[in-house]
Automatic annotation (TrEMBL):
Alphabetical list of Pfam families matching this protein: PilN (PF05137)
Membrane-spanning ranges: 21-43
Keyword terms, alphabetized: Coiled coil, Membrane, Transmembrane, Transmembrane helix
Protein known as: Fimbrial protein
Ranges in a coiled coil: 64-91
InterPro entries assigned to the protein according to its UniProt record, in alphabetical order: Extracell_DNA_Util/SecSys_Comp, PilN
PANTHER family per the UniProt record, alphabetical: DNA UTILIZATION PROTEIN HOFN (PTHR40278), TYPE IV PILUS INNER MEMBRANE COMPONENT PILN (PTHR40278:SF2)
Domain of life where this protein originates: Bacteria
Amino acid sequence: MAHINLLPWREAALKAQQKEYFSILAAVGLTVLALVLIINFYFQARIDGQNSKNQYLKNEIVQLDIKIDEIKTLNDKKASLQKRIEVVEQLQRSRNVGTQVLDEIAKIIPNGIYITEMEKKGNTLHLIGKSESNNHLANMIRAVELSDFFIDATPESITADDGSPKLLSSFIMKVKIKGLMDDAKTSKGGK
């Protein structure tokens, strides 16, 4: 019995162990590879989901930027229309100014005052005339201040006419019209 060779059995057992080792190693390798692929797919799916959310947000931001631009143009149009409406309203208010001025002048001028020249520039009325006395002129200034149509009566000059037979004094007066914008302001605003 001393001559029994156990080597083939040991070689077969060693080969079986090696085969089992390599199959376990291959199984572990395949499991690790599958695990890495699953983790990779998981994180890639999350990255793709986040990228799609980011792209959606970018598209929405572009849409909102377009709407903001539309709102800005609408606000510009609104401001332009508002200016036009104000000009039309001003023109509507000043439509009958000439008639109203003459009517109001007839009401506020007392006896003894004679208007020789009247000129309207913007919302200012320049009156040039003659007065029999300074009291009549003071009464006219008071009537202007009480008027609903005129404000700010400012006499610029009062000079006595020595050469006239009735001793009339000449005067120049500025009177402003209420609620009427200056023509210079409307022409600047209209441009």
